[in-house]
Write a structure and sequence with these properties.
This protein is mainly alpha-helical and 298 residues long. It folds into two domains: 96 residues, DNA polymerase, domain 1 (Orthogonal Bundle); 131 residues, Intergrase catalytic core (hpI Integrase, Chain A). It has twelve helices and five strands. The strands form two sheets. A three-stranded antiparallel beta sheet has the order 1-2-3, with no helix packed on it. A two-stranded antiparallel sheet has the order 4-5. Strand 1 and strand 2 form a beta hairpin. Helix 6 crosses helix 10. It is globular. This is Tyr recombinase domain-containing protein. InterPro entries: DNA_brk_join_enz (IPR011010), Integrase-like_cat_sf (IPR013762), Integrase_catalytic (IPR002104), Integrase_recombinase_N (IPR010998), Tyrosine_recombinase_XerCD (IPR050090). GO terms for molecular function: DNA binding.
Length: 298
C-alpha cells in the first residue's frame, strides 16, 4: 500500500470518530508528509518503508522551518493515523510513537486589565447592532469558548429555565445557566427560527452557511479589525482573553469570602472544567491565584 493510500485509509476511519476540524488538520499533515517524501525520498513508495528514521527526518524538517510546537502537532496527528494503521495490521508498528515530544512554550492568551476590559466594552456599545459586544459577553459572562459561542442556535436556549445547551470541549452536550447579567441583553428569541444561529455577521438570529471554524474565524478577524487595531493590542490578547479575565475575576471574588478549595469547587460548577485538577492547572496557567503580600516574611 502506498503512503497516500495508507493515510487515506486511516483518514476514512478517523472521519467516523473525530470532528471536522481535527480531520482537516490530519489531512493537512498527511499532505505535507506525502509531499516531503516525494521531494526528498523519492525511492520510498510504500507505507512500510516509512520508518522511524524517515519520520524523524520529516519532523526535523518541520522544526527547522517553524517551531517545536508545530513539529509536535505533526507528530501527534501522524502518530494517531499510523496507530490506526498498526491496529488494522497494515504496518507492523507505529514509528511516530517511538519519537519523543520536544519541549515547547505554548501560546497563552493574557488577561485584560479592568480598565482595558471596560474601555473595550464601552467602545463596542457604539456598534449598531452590537453583535460583537454580545458575542464577547457570552465568552465573558457565560465563560464559553469562542467556538462554543459560534455553535449556539436559537433552539439551544431554554428561557423558561434560563439555560443553554451546547457542544463543549470536554463533552458532547453541556448545559449551563444563563446569568441575569446577559439574559437582559438577549433579543426576543420566540419569533426566530429555532435552527438559526444566534450570531451571524449581520444580525442576531439568522441563517449562516459556513463551517463552525469559518464562523469563529470571522469573529476573530472582526475583533482584530474593530478592537485590536483600535486599542493597539498585541498577539497575546484576543477573544479567548476575555474568558481568562472573567474566570480570574470570579475566582478572586469567591476566594475573598471562603477557602481556596471551596472557591474552586464553586468555580468548577460555573466554568465546566471536568476535574479539580484541570481547573487548578488552568488557574495556574492564567495566574489567577496569587499569594498575599509576603513583605513581613522578608
Amino acid at each position: 500500500m502506498t503512503i497516500r493510500e495508507a493515510f487515506d485509509f486511516s483518514l476514512e476511519l478517523k472521519a467516523k470518530v473525530i470532528n471536522e476540524r481535527s480531520l482537516k488538520d490530519y489531512f493537512y499533515s498527511t499532505n505535507a508528509v506525502v509531499k516531503w517524501v516525494k521531494e526528498n525520498k523519492p525511492k520510498i513508495k510504500t507505507i512500510d518503508q516509512f520508518t522511524k528514521k524517515i519520520a524523524l527526518e520529516f519532523l526535523n524538517s518541520v522544526l527547522l522551518k517553524s517551531t517545536a510546537r508545530n513539529r509536535n502537532n505533526y507528530r501527534l496527528n501522524l502518530s494517531s493515523l499510523m496507530q490506526t494503521l498498526e491496529d488494522n495490521e497494515i504496518i507492523a508498528s507505529n514509528p511516530m510513537r517511538k519519537i519523543s515530544v520536544l519541549k515547547s512554550t505554548p501560546k497563552r492568551n493574557q488577561t485584560y486589565s479592568a480598565n482595558e476590559q471596560e474601555d473595550i466594552f464601552k467602545y463596542l456599545e457604539k456598534e449598531d447592532p452590537p453583535i460583537l459586544l454580545l458575542y464577547i459577553k457570552f465568552i465573558s459572562y457565560n465563560l464559553l469558548r469562542p467556538i462554543e459561542v459560534c455553535r449556539l442556535k436559537i433552539k439551544d436556549f431554554d428561557l423558561k429555565n434560563n439555560t443553554i445547551k451546547f457542544k463543549a470541549k470536554n463533552s458532547p452536550l453541556k448545559t449551563k445557566i444563563i446569568p441575569k447579567i446577559i439574559l437582559k441583553e438577549l433579543p426576543d428569541l420566540s419569533k426566530l427560527n429555532p435552527e438559526n444561529f444566534l450570531f451571524t455577521p449581520i444580525k442576531l438570529g439568522g441563517a449562516w452557511d459556513a463551517t463552525e471554524n469559518n464562523r469563529r474565524d470571522y469573529f476573530s478577524k472582526r475583533f482584530k479589525t474593530v478592537v485590536k487595531e483600535k486599542f493597539n493590542l498585541d498577539n497575546n490578547h484576543g477573544l479567548y482573553s476575555f474568558r481568562h479575565t472573567f474566570i480570574t475575576k470570579l475566582y478572586r471574588a469567591l476566594a475573598q469570602s471562603t477557602s481556596p478549595h471551596a472557591a474552586k469547587s464553586e468555580l468548577m460548577s460555573i466554568t465546566g472544567h471536568s476535574s479539580m485538577q484541570a481547573l487548578e492547572k488552568y488557574l495556574r496557567d492564567i495566574d489567577a491565584e496569587l499569594p498575599n503580600d509576603y513583605s513581613d516574611l522578608l
